[in-house]
Amino acid sequence: TAAFLRPDRRLMVEGETNLPNDAQLQVVVEREISRVRWQERTRVVNGKFEAGPLGSGSGLPDGNYLVTVQLGEAAVQPESVQARIGTQGEYLAGV
Question: Which of 12, 25, 70, 89 gets the highest tally of CB atoms within 10 A of its CB?
């Protein structure tokens, strides 16, 4: 997963995954000092995902940020994704 600032100081997040196409992901960016969060839902397309721009219209202030990418619950995934990961995520393994 990679994150980079656009010229307007808003953050873009992109990455690669072995999750199936159309898997629904949640991308969250959190500023460590204030705990202010920005989030966006996205989906996997051909083993890749992207989210953004994230941050306020005036851009992100300097500081440390935590970026997390999470797979949504199996119950909210499309049927094609549930067929691969299980209706309760029972076929998932890894870190």
Answer: 25
